[in-house]
Write a sequence for this structure.
C-alpha cells in the first residue's frame, strides 16, 4: 500500500500480522499516538509550520513495522488526514527514486489536471520522470541531481498544505535508494516548515555512503526510540498466551534464549512449535534451537519441505522482485501459468509468507522472510532468474530503469545485447538525475565485456556520466578512455578531450585543462574538431590566474580569429574568445562589442552555443556575456544571463551552473547600480556554492563581487567579515582567475578599512602582475585608481601618476563607465579647480553610461568639491541628485555622506522626499516657476539657456518631489498659477 487517503480513492487499512508483537512498546506507542494527534490538533487550529520527525530504530524483527502500521492506522482515523507510505527494499536499493515513487506517485498521479499544474509549476518535466509519472524525455539529456531535489522540494511544498495534515511513513529506511534517502534527509531538516509528520523506521545497516544521512536525520528528530529486546517475563507471557498457561518455566526461558527476545522470532518460533504440536515442557526445550532455525528459514531444505519446489520457485521470484510484487511478473519469472501461479500464491498465503495489498500487489508478511528465501537461492538459479526478470519487465512494457537492477546481477558472458540494454538504462538514469545509477550500469557493461569496437564508447559514456556531479571521477574515466590503445573514434576523441578539460576546469585545474586541449589539437587533423580544441585551449587559458605567455597567446588568438568568418560554432567560439581577450587587455570596447556581436545571431545565442549545450558548456556564452558586462552593454548582458537562469531551471541544473548564473546576474546588477538586487542574486549563488564544496572558483567569484557590493552600500565591516569567513585573501585560488580581479578587490577592502600601507603593497603587486600579462582593463581590475587613493596622503605625485595612467587606459578602452570611474578616482587625488573639472567630466560621461552607482558617487563627489570651493548653489543640486540616485541604488553609505555634505552646506538634506518647496534645489525652483507660468519645456530651455534633456530631468525631479502632476504643481509649491497672472512673462 503506497498511500492511505481519507476522501477520494480511500484504501482499506490492512492489519499487520506482526502487531501481536507490540509488547513492551508502551512508550513508543504513546509517542506515535501523541505525534499524530498533535499534528492534527495544531492543523485544525490553523497551524502550518508544525512538522515533526519521529524515528524508530533497532535490529530486524523488533516490531518497527508493527509500530508503523499503528501510525498509519491512527492517521487514517483522523478526519481529513493524508497518509503516505513507502518501504525500502533490500534488493531494490539500486532503483533510483524508488522510495519516493512509492510515497508520492499515488497522490500526485491522482491530482486533477488544474491542481497538478499548480503543484508542479514549471517542474513537471524534471520531477515527473523521477517519480515515474512520465517517461524520461526522448532527448535523454542529463539532469542535475540537485535540480531534481530542488524540484521535489517545490512540488512537496506545494502538495503538503493541500493534503494536510499529512503523515509520511517510511519503513526499512536503511534499504532506501540513495536518491530518495538524500531527499528525505534534506526534507527532514526543513520538515518543521510544513504540516507534516515524518515517521521513519530503520535498522543499523546503513553503508558508508548513507550513514551520514542517517546521522543528519537523527540530529533533528524531535523523538527517537531504539527498540529493545523483550524481557524473559514478556516472552513467557507470549508463550503461555500462544501455547497455554501450562507452559513450563524452563521451556519459556529457552524460547527467550534461542530468540534473544526478538519479537518477530518469538512469534515465528511459537507458530512452529504449535504446528509441530510440541508440548511446552522442559523436556522439549532442547528442540527449540532447531525449531528456531527452521522458523527463521535459514536453509533451502526448510523451504522445500514447507512449500514444495513449484511454490518455492514462485517465492524465489517474489523475493527477487523485493516489495510491491506483481503476481503476473513473478509468474513469468518462475515460468508458471496463471492457474499454477494462483495456487502458489494461495499456498504462500497459508504459510504466512505472502500477503495481498489492497492495490492487488503481493508483499512479504515480514521483510525477514523475503531475505531468508532469497538467501536460499542457488547461485546459478539466482543469476538466471535475474536475467529472466529483466527480460520479463522489458516484455511487459517496463523501462530499462526498472530492468537494469536485474541486469546488474547477471553474470558477464560477453553478450552485446546486455551491453546495449545497460547503456540505454544509463541514459535513462541520467535523464532522471541519477548519475550514480548510470555509473553502475556502465561499469557493469564494461565487465560484460563489450566488443572492442564499442568498448571505448562505453568508457567515454562512463566518464561523461559524472560530469555534473563528480569532476574527479570524470577526469579519471575520460583519461583512461583517451588512451591510444582504447581506440576511441576521432570524433569522440575530440568530444572526450573537451569534456575532460571541462571537468578539469570545474575542479580548478585550468592549466591542465588548457594543456590537454592544446596537446590533442596537435594530434587532430585540420577541420572543425581541431578548431574546437584550439578554441577550448584559448578559453581555459583565458580563465587562468597566471599564464607563462599571456601576451603571446593573445597575439596567436588574434591572428587565428582575424581570418575567420564566424559561420560555425568553433569559429564563433574563437571570435568570442577574441572579444573577451580584447576586453581584458583594455583594447577598444567598441571593437570588443563588435566581435561579441559576431558570435551571436541577432543578438542572441545560437543553438550550438546555448547555456546547457554539451558542445561548449556554459563558459563560452558566459564569456560573451562578460564581454558585454565590462563594455557597458549591460541590458544585453542581463538578457543573456536571464536566459541562463531560465535554461538551467528548465534543464533542472541547480548546482554550480545555476550558482554561476546567479553570480553573473549579480555582477551585472552591481554594474548597473542595483545593489540590493545584486546582493540578493549573489547570496543565492553563495548558498549554492556552499553545498557543493568549499574554495571553488565559483565561491571566490561570488564572495568578491558580494564584498564589493557591500562596500558600495557602505557596509565596510560586513564586507571585511565576509572576506574573512570565506578566506578571500592571498594567495587566492591556485590557478583560477577570479571575476572581477581578486587581488584588486582585496586591496579595495584594505583601503576601505583604513589599512593604506597594506593596500599599497597589495595593489602595487597586482599592477605588476597584470601589466606583465597585458591586462589593462580598468573596470575588471581598477587597481591603479585605488592605488592612487592609497598613496595620496604620503606620495601625492606618485598617486597622481597612477591616477593618470588609469585615465589613459580607460580612454583607450573607451567605455563611459571606465572613463568616468577613472576620472572620479583621479579627481580624488587632485586639488582645487582641476578636481572640479575632472569631476564635471566624470559626471557628464557617467550620465551616458548605465553604471548607476558610479554615477551617483561622481555626483556626490562633485557636489562635495563644489561645496569646498564655495559654489554652494551648484553643490546643492549635485548633492541632491547624487543622494537621490544613491537611494535608488541602495547605497546607504553614499546617501549618508551626501546628507552630511548638504548639512555642512547649510541645506536641508532630510527634506529630499517631502512635499514642500524646501525639497527643491535652486535650479529645480527655476524650472518649476517657469513651468507653473505655463511655459513648455523647450521655451524653458531657451529661457535658461539649458539643454532640453536637462530641463526634462529637472522637471521630472520637481514633479517627483512635489508629488503631483502639472495641474497641481502650483498649489503644491504655493505659487500662483498661470490663470491668476496677467500677461506673459516668457
Amino acid at each position: 500500500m503506497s498511500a492511505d487517503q481519507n476522501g477520494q480513492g480511500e484504501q482499506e487499512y490492512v492489519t499487520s500480522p506482526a502487531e501481536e508483537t507490540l509488547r513492551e512498546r508502551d512508550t513508543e506507542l504513546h509517542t506515535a499516538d501523541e505525534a499524530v494527534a498533535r499534528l492534527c490538533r495544531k492543523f485544525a487550529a490553523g497551524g502550518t509550520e508544525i512538522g515533526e520527525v519521529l524515528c524508530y530504530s533497532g535490529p530486524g524483527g523488533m516490531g518497527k513495522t508493527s509500530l508503523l502500521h499503528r501510525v498509519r492506522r491512527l492517521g487514517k482515523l483522523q478526519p481529513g488526514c493524508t497518509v503516505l507510505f513507502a518501504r525500502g527494499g533490500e534488493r531494490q536499493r539500486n532503483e533510483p527514486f524508488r522510495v519516493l515513487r512509492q510515497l508520492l506517485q499515488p497522490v500526485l498521479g491522482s491530482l486533477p489536471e488544474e491542481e497538478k499544474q499548480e503543484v508542479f509549476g514549471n517542474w513537471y518535466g524534471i520531477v515527473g520522470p523521477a517519480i515515474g509519472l512520465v517517461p524520461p524525455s526522448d532527448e535523454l539529456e542529463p539532469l542535475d541531481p540537485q535540480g531534481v531535489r530542488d524540484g521535489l522540494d517545490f512540488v512537496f511544498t506545494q502538495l503538503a498544505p493541500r493534503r494536510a495534515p499529512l503523515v509520511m511513513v517510511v519503513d526499512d529506511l536503511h534499504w532506501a535508494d540513495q536518491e530518495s534517502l538524500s531527499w528525505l534527509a534534506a526534507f527532514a531538516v526543513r520538515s518543521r516548515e510544513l504540516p507534516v509528520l515524518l515517521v521513519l523506521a530503520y535498522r543499523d545497516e546503513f553503508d558508508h555512503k548513507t550513514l551520514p544521512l542517517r546521522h543528519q536525520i537523527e540530529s533533528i528528530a524531535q523523538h527517537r526510540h531504539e527498540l529493545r529486546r523483550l524481557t524473559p517475563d514478556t516472552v513467557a507471557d507470549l508463550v503461555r498466551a500462544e501455547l497455554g498457561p501450562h507452559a513450563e518455566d524452563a521451556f519459556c526461558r529457552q524460547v527467550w534464549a534461542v530468540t534473544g527476545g526478538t519479537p518477530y522470532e518469538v512469534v515465528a518460533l511459537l507458530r512452529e512449535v504449535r504446528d509441530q504440536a510440541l508440548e511446552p515442557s522442559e523436556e522439549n526445550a532442547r528442540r527449540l534451537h532447531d525449531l528456531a532455525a527452521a522458523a527463521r528459514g535459514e536453509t533451502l531444505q526448510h523451504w522445500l519441505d514447507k512449500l514444495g519446489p513449484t511454490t518455492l520457485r514462485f517465492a524465489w521470484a517474489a523475493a527477487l522482485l523485493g516489495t510491491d510484487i506483481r503476481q503476473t511478473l513473478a509468474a513469468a519469472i518462475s515460468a508458471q501459468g496463471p492457474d499454477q501461479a494462483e495456487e502458489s500464491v494461495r499456498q504462500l498465503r497459508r504459510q504466512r509468507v505472502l500477503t495481498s495489498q489492497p492495490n492487488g500487489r503481493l508483499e512479504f508478511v515480514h521483510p525477514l522472510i523475503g531475505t531468508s528465501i532469497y538467501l536460499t537461492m542457488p547461485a546459478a538459479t539466482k543469476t538466471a532468474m535475474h536475467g529472466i526478470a529483466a527480460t520479463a519487465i522489458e516484455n511487459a512494457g517496463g523501462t530499462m530503469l526498472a530492468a537494469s537492477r536485474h541486469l546488474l546481477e547477471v553474470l558477464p558472458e560477453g553478450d552485446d545485447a546486455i551491453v546495449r540494454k545497460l547503456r540505454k538504462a544509463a541514459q535513462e538514469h541520467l535523464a532522471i538525475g541519477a548519475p550514480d545509477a548510470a555509473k553502475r550500469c556502465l561499469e557493469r557493461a564494461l565487465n560484460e565485456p563489450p566488443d572492442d569496437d564499442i568498448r571505448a564508447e562505453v568508457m567515454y559514456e562512463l566518464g561523461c556520466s559524472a560530469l555534473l556531479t563528480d569532476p574527479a571521477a570524470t577526469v579519471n574515466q575520460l583519461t583512461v578512455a583517451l588512451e591510444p590503445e582504447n581506440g576511441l573514434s576521432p570524433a569522440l576523441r575530440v568530444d572526450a578531450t573537451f569534456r575532460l578539460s571541462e571537468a578539469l576546469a570545474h575542479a580548478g585545474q585550468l592549466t591542465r585543462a588548457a594543456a590537454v586541449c592544446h596537446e590533442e589539437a596537435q594530434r587532430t587533423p585540420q577541420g572543425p574538431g581541431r578548431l574546437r580544441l584550439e578554441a577550448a585551449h584559448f578559453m581555459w587559458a583565458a580563465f587562468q590566474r597566471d599564464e607563462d605567455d599571456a601576451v603571446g597567446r593573445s597575439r596567436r588568438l588574434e591572428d587565428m580569429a582575424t581570418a575567420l568568418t564566424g559561420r560555425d560554432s568553433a569559429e564563433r567560439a574563437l571570435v568570442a574568445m577574441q572579444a573577451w581577450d580584447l576586453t581584458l587587455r583594455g583594447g577598444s570596447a567598441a571593437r570588443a562589442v563588435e566581435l561579441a556581436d559576431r558570435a551571436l545571431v541577432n543578438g542572441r545565442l545560437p543553438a550550438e552555443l546555448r547555456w546547457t549545450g554539451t558542445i561548449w558548456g556554459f563558459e563560452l556564452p558566459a564569456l560573451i556575456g562578460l564581454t558585454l558586462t565590462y563594455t557597458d552593454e549591460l541590458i544585453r548582458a542581463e538578457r543573456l544571463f536571464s536566459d541562463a537562469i531560465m535554461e538551467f531551471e528548465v534543464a533542472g541544473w541547480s548546482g554550480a551552473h545555476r550558482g554561476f548564473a546567479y553570480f553573473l546576474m549579480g555582477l551585472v546588477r552591481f554594474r548597473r547600480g542595483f545593489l540590493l538586487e545584486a546582493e540578493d542574486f549573489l547570496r543565492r549563488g553563495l548558498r549554492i556554492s556552499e553545498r557543493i564544496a568549499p574554495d571553488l572558483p565559483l565561491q571566490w567569484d561570488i564572495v568578491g563581487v558580494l564584498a564589493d557590493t557591500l562596500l558600495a552600500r557602505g557596509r565596510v565591516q560586513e564586507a571585511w567579515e565576509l572576506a574573512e569567513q570565506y578566506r578571500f585573501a592571498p594567495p587566492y585560488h591556485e590557478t583560477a582567475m577570479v571575476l572581477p580581479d581578486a587581488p584588486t578587490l582585496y586591496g579595495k577592502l584594505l583601503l576601505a578599512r583604513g589599512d593604506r600601507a597594506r593596500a599599497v603593497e597589495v595593489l602595487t603587486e597586482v599592477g605588476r602582475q597584470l601589466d606583465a600579462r597585458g591586462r589593462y582593463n580598468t573596470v575588471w581590475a581598477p587597481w591603479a585608481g585605488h592605488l592612487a587613493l592609497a598613496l595620496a596622503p604620503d606620495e601625492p605625485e606618485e598617486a597622481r601618476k597612477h591616477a593618470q595612467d588609469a585615465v589613459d587606459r580607460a580612454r583607450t578602452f573607451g567605455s563611459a563607465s571606465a572613463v568616468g570611474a577613472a576620472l572620479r578616482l583621479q579627481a580624488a587625488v587632485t586639488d582645487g579647480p582641476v578636481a572640479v573639472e575632472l569631476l564635471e567630466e566624470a559626471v557628464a560621461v557617467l550620465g551616458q553610461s548605465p553604471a548607476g552607482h558610479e554615477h551617483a558617487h561622481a555626483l556626490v563627489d562633485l557636489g562635495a568639491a563644489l561645496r569646498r570651493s564655495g559654489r554652494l548653489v551648484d553643490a546643492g543640486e549635485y548633492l541632491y541628485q547624487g543622494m537621490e540616485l544613491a537611494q535608488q541604488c541602495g547605497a546607504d553609505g553614499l546617501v549618508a555622506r551626501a546628507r552630511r555634505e548638504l548639512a555642512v552646506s547649510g541645506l536641508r538634506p532630510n527634506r529630499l522626499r517631502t512635499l514642500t518647496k524646501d525639497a527643491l534645489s535652486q535650479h529645480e525652483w527655476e524650472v518649476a516657476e517657469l513651468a507653473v507660468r505655463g511655459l513648455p519645456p523647450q521655451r524653458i530651455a531657451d529661457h535658461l539657456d539649458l539643454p532640453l534633456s536637462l530641463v526634462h530631468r529637472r522637471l521630472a525631479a520637481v514633479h517627483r518631489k512635489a508629488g503631483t502632476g502639472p495641474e497641481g504643481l502650483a498649489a503644491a509649491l504655493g505659487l500662483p498659477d498661470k490663470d491668476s497672472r496677467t500677461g506673459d512673462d516668457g
